[in-house]
Structures are given as structure tokens and as C-alpha cells.
Design a protein that fits this description.
The complex is a heterodimer of chains A (about 270) and B (about 270). Chain A contains eight helices and ten strands. Chain A is an alpha/beta fold and about 270 residues long. In chain A, the strands form two sheets. Chain A has a six-stranded mixed sheet, sandwiched between helices. In chain A, helix 4 packs across helix 5. The radius of gyration of chain A is 19 Å and the shape is globular. Chain B is mostly helical and about 270 residues long. In chain B, about 80% of the residues lie in helices and about 0% in strands. Chain B contains ten helices and two strands. In chain B, a hairpin with a 3-residue loop joins strand 1 and strand 2. Classes of the chains: A alpha/beta (about 270), B mainly alpha (about 270). At the A-B interface, strand 6 and helix 3 of A face helix 7 and helix 8 of B. Chain A: This is ABC transporter ATP-binding protein. Chain A: Keywords: ATP-binding, Nucleotide-binding, Transport. Chain A: GO terms for molecular function: ATP binding; ATP hydrolysis activity.
């Protein structure tokens, strides 16, 4: 907990703003060479995300939203433009940019505690510190009773909590989430959204969150990026609109303002 | 629920043992009646089950016939097991690391794959004459043949298993700060372990198969050599005894291998059930 809190203090209070969570995408494009000639997965993406901001990315399948996230994670290269996190260009994956996958990506042969410790040990934390930090993070996500279980013995929601805990343990400046709740049932999904809201407030990390659910995007995000295009549309994936969500911290998913915004974004997704 | 499960297990066990008993009965009847079966199998030439049982007892504990083989089972089994173990161990020590590298690095694969495909189809039986000429009769030739035959199934299973490692796990490790080299030991090897263990089991089983081939020439201790000598003396009873002991040894060594890994890994899901 102490790590999470200290991070909040460092990033939100005081005149000195921690810039390590700033995301700058300028003219970003990704071109694949295929047998039938080049194909642009995404093109001309400009996006600036302030430190501590929560940005959701929505759009139809194939619009390149996951590609964008994978480029930011360092899993894939881009072919044009600049990709910077905290003012430094992204070169390959690393622990400053934590990634949460839809299919969790936990190591099945490691227990919950060992999964959460894994990254810390890789980053050369001492055994004792890693153990303590992992125990704290497992408590934060409410899985202390399951610390010695294996991922295969847990429900999907619990596995995703472990995946979030292992990423937050290293206190990343940026959290990249690729449809993290897409494989969960509706009830678990709602619980996880609440949980993420709380964790994010504690950590203060910048969050980029790809989702198919407009409701989820409006519920969680400060801004919603609507992407359009994609191979099936004959145009490269691009940003069609950026919609700020001015609904305050307490959001009522059944309130009129919430629903208005949801409809507006849905219209943007469908018309583009 | 538990009781019902046990009842079913015991029922299934009784069914299996019953079938074995039926086979033994048919064996006995066939020998006495001198049945001639498919493939011109002349059952009259077979020893009866009780003759085999007595000889097996004498081989294990002695005291019945007092010949050169009385009470020597342990000696022969140990000699054979050591050869299998040496050949298998050497094959595993070579095939697993090479397989991991071939599975993960296209360059290594490109360099070694043609050679593997050149040697792999040559069966151990075809190697025997050459091995006898360039190594000569004995333990070393046997161990060489076992290494050779166990190597390929272990290698191919290791290659396949390392290729099937979910890319997601590699991404997860890289994102958590694991280096490219670290991924090999931290992710690829554990994720491929179930497949590697399957390959090891096949390799060990083959080791016992090839043992008989290797011990066929110029060796006087070992279960394979006992069988081949018994054949020359037309002792079908001793041949069958040797077959039974080799079968049991192969079965037991597989169980020991699997239980060993299970003991090593505890509850970790690293060995296929």
C-alpha cells in the first residue's frame, strides 16, 4: 500500500508534476507489407494523454485500437510518427508500462503470490521486499486467502485481479489495458470496474483502456477516444473523435447525462 | 459419492484383472492343446504359464533349479537398467537444450533441421551393423544405440512444446522486465515442461526396446543378453521370463520418471495427468 500511496502523493499533489506517465503519439502509423501490397493498420494517430489521466479507446473490431496499445506496450513497432511515454521513445516492452491482457497472461505454474512477485524479482527487488510487496498487492485486490493457489484454480475475475496486482506491484507510470474485462460475466465485470476505479485512484497511473463497451468507457474514463476504419473498411484505423467525459467522480450509469453521452459516442462509433 | 467412486474403481480393476486371468487360462489351454493360431503361431512350442512362473521365481530368488541364472535377476536387471539410464540420460541432456534452442530460434532450427531429418528416419536396427563395426560388441555400443534412439523423440517433443508456448506468456514476462534470454528459462522451459516430459517418457520407453537389440551381441550380463542366449539354447521359458522382466522394468521406470517429476513439481501443473 505504501508504494501506491507514495505514488499518488508524487503524481497528484504539489507543483511538481510527475511527467513519467505522459503519453505522446504524433503521426503514428503502422504499415504491414503483404503479398498484395502494403496495408496500413493505423495511420496519422495524434494523441496526448496527461499524467494520471484515464483514456478509454472504443471502436469497431479491426479499427486498430489494440494495435495502438501493443505499440505503446512495445510489443510491436510502428512504421511512422513518434511514440513517447514520459518524454522517452518506446523501445520494446518494460515494467514502466504495465499491460493487462484480456486473457490474463498469468503463469499457470506459479502460485498467485509467485505470479505477483515475478516482475519484482525480474526487476531485481530483493526476495524479502518482493515478498512483502506482493502480499500487500494481493491484499489490495482481496485475494490474500488465495495467495497459494494456482491460476487454473481461480475464476476469471480472480485471475484478472492477480494480473492487475502483478502490474501495479511495480508501480508503473502507465497502465495499458486491452479489453481486460471482455471475458468476464456481466456481474463480475461491474465489480471489476468499481475495483479498477478504486485502484486507479490509489495508484495515480495514467491508464489507456481499450474496450468494446461504450458504457464501460463512459463509466471509467476522463476522455473517450473513438477509433474508426480498419482493413475491412478499406481505410487505415484512425481517431475519429475524442469525447471528454464531464460527469464527475460519482457516475450513475442510469442517469440521463450518462445515457446521453453513451448515445452520442455510440452514434460516433457507428457512423464512422 | 466417494464410496460410489471407489466401488466403480474396484469394479473396473476387477474387470481388468479378470481379462488378464482369461488370457492366462487361454495361454494354458493353448499350450496343452497345441493350438495353431493366426500367423502359424504354434502354441505347443510355448512353455505353460506355471512353468514360466516357476522359472521366474527361480530367476528372482533361486532355490528351484540351481542353474547359472538362479537368483540373478537383480544382477541382470541392474546391468540393463544402468545401460538404459546412461543412454537415456545422455539423450535427454543433449536433446532438451538443443530442442529448446531449435524451437525458439529460427536460425538454430535452420542450421540443424536438415541434419535431424537426415538421421531421424534411420532406425536403430539399421545402425546395429555399423555400430558393431566402429564401436564393437559391448556396453558402449548398447548405450550408444539407446542414446541414438531416445534422442529423436525427446528432441521433437521438446521442439514442438517450445513452439507451442503461448506468445502471451512471453509478452507478459517481457512487460514485467524479463530479458530476452531470461524468457527462455523463466517462461519457455516451464511452459514447455509438460511436452518435454512426454518426450522423455517416450525416449525412456524406447531405451528398453533398444536395450535388447544392443545386448544381443557379446554381452553376458543383462536381460537382453539373457533372452538372446536363451534363444540359442531353445529355452522358450527363459525367453518369456526375460520378456516379462523387461516389460515390468519398462513399466516401472516410466512410473518412477512420472512420479519423480510429480514429486519435484508438487502441485504445480507441469506434468500431464
Amino acid at each position: 500500500m505504501s508504494g501506491v500511496r507514495s505514488a499518488v502523493a508524487a503524481r497528484s499533489a504539489g507543483p511538481v508534476v510527475d511527467e513519467s506517465g505522459r503519453v505522446t503519439l504524433a503521426g503514428v502509423g503502422k504499415r504491414y507489407e503483404t503479398k498484395r501490397g502494403p496495408v496500413d493498420a493505423v495511420a496519422d494517430v495524434d494523441l496526448e494523454v496527461a499524467p494520471g489521466e484515464f483514456v478509454a479507446i472504443v471502436g469497431a473490431s479491426g479499427c486498430g485500437k489494440s494495435t495502438l496499445l501493443r505499440i505503446l506496450a512495445g510489443f510491436e513497432g510502428h512504421t511512422s510518427g513518434t511514440v513517447e511515454v514520459g518524454g522517452a521513445p518506446v523501445r520494446g516492452p518494460g515494467p514502466a508500462r504495465g499491460v493487462v491482457f484480456q486473457d490474463y497472461g498469468l503463469f499457470p505454474w506459479l502460485t498467485v503470490a509467485e505470479n505477483v512477485r515475478f516482475g519484482l524479482r525480474q526487476q531485481r527487488w530483493s526476495r524479502a521486499r518482493a515478498k512483502q510487496r506482493a502480499a500487500e498487492m494481493i491484499e489490495v485486490v482481496g485475494l490474500t486467502r488465495f495467495a497459494d493457489r494456482f491460476p487454473g484454480e481461480l475464476s476469471g475475475g480472480m485471475q484478472q485481479r492477480v494480473a492487475i496486482a502483478r502490474v501495479l506491484a511495480a508501480d508503473p507510470a502507465l497502465l495499458l489495458m486491452d479489453e481486460p474485462f471482455g471475458a468476464l460475466d456481466a456481474l463480475t465485470r461491474t465489480t471489476m470496474q468499481h475495483e479498477l476505479k478504486r485502484l486507479r485512484a490509489e495508484s495515480g497511473a495514467t491508464v489507456l483502456f481499450v474496450t468494446h463497451s461504450i458504457e464501460e468507457a463512459v463509466y471509467l474514463a476522463d476522455r473517450v477516444v473513438v477509433m474508426a476504419g480498419g482493413a475491412s473498411h478499406g481505410a487505415p484505423g484512425h481517431i475519429a473523435a475524442i469525447v471528454p467525459v464531464d460527469l464527475g467522480d460519482e457516475r450513475d450509469v442510469n442517469g440521463p447525462a450518462f445515457n446521453d453521452l453513451e448515445r452520442r459516442i455510440a452514434a460516433l462509433v457507428h457512423e464512422s | 459419492m466417494r464410496a460410489a467412486l471407489w466401488r466403480r474403481r474396484i469394479g473396473h480393476g476387477a474387470l481388468g484383472l479378470g481379462f488378464v486371468a482369461l488370457l492366462l487360462l487361454l495361454w494354458d489351454l493353448g499350450v496343452r492343446g497345441e493350438w495353431v493360431l493366426l500367423f502359424d503361431i504354434k502354441m505347443g512350442f510355448l512353455p505353460a504359464p506355471d512353468v514360466v512362473a516357476r522359472l521366474l521365481w527361480d530367476f528372482a530368488f533361486g532355490g528351484l533349479y540351481d542353474d547359472a541364472y538362479s537368483g540373478t535377476l537383480l544382477e541382470h536387471l541392474t546391468a540393463s537398467a544402468l545401460r538404459v539410464l546412461a543412454g537415456f540420460g545422455l539423450a535427454a541432456a543433449l536433446a532438451v537444450p538443443i530442442g529448446v534452442l531449435m524451437g525458439r530460434f529460427p536460425l538454430v532450427n535452420a542450421a540443424l533441421d536438415p541434419a535431424v531429418n537426415l538421421f531421424r528416419p534411420v532406425p536403430a536396427t539399421a545402425w546395429v551393423p555399423l555400430v558393431l563395426l566402429i564401436i564393437g560388441f559391448g556396453s558402449q555400443a548398447t548405450i550408444f544405440l539407446i542414446t541414438l534412439s531416445a534422442f529423436f523423440p525427446i528432441l521433437l517433443n521438446t521442439i514442438a512444446a517450445t513452439r507451442e508456448v503461448p506468445p502471451r506468456l512471453v509478452e507478459a514476462a517481457r512487460m514485467l522486465g524479463t530479458t530476452r534470454v531470461g524468457v527462455l528459462m523463466k517462461v519457455v522451459v516451464p511452459a514447455a515442461t509438460p511436452g518435454i516430459v512426454s518426450g522423455l517418457r517416450i525416449g525412456l520407453g524406447l531405451g528398453w526396446v533398444i536395450l535388447v537389440l544392443g545386448e544381443a551381441n557379446g554381452i553376458d550380463t543383462g536381460l537382453g543378453s539373457m533372452i538372446m542366449l536363451a534363444r540359442e539354447q531353445v529355452r522358450t521359458d527363459r525367453v518369456v521370463v526375460g520378456m516379462i522382466v523387461i516389460g515390468l522394468a519398462g513399466f516401472l521406470s516410466d512410473r518412477i520418471l512420472v512420479l519423480g517429476f510429480k514429486g519435484l513439481f508438487g502441485r504445480r501443473p507441469l506434468v500431464r495427468a
